[in-house]
Amino acid sequence: MDEEKARARVVVHGVVQGVGFRYFAFRNATIRGLKGYVRNLPDGSVETVVEGDRDMVADYVEQVKAGPRFARVTRADVTWEPFRGEFETFEIRY
Predict the structure, then answer these.
(1) Would you call 84 a catalytic residue per the annotation?
(2) pLDDT for the residue 3
(3) Prediction pTM value
(4) Any domain includes 42
């Protein structure tokens, strides 16, 4: 497994608020040992920023693009950024 570190920012659009999306993202990040956050945005989208091992971040991004069972993701904007190591945990922000 490639142990290179990575960071991704994903903004997910569609029916993604009020369907358990943040908890879904939290669970998927923590089981992969990733750090960062997920939060609802005022426009109805969900933003997540995540850091960790590149393979785990890539897997997380694919899970978030699919979304939880009751979500309907219409678009996911993924931005790969340089790893910063700025997070100690993964959190749901309110």
Answers:
(1) no
(2) 63
(3) 0.94
(4) yes
For the beta sheet containing 90-93, the strands, ordered from the edge strand earlier in sequence to the opposite edge, are 72-81, 5-15, 46-53, 35-40, 90-93
Residue at 56 is within a domain: yes
What are 20-74's pLDDT values in tens digits? 999 999 999 999 999 999 999 999 999 999 999 999 999 999 999 999 999 999 9
- The encoded tokens of residue 65 equal 């693009």
Asked if the structure places residue 85 within a domain, the reply is no
Choose, from 22, 54, 69, 93, the residue flagged as catalytic: 22
Instruction: Please say if 28 is a catalytic residue.
Output: no
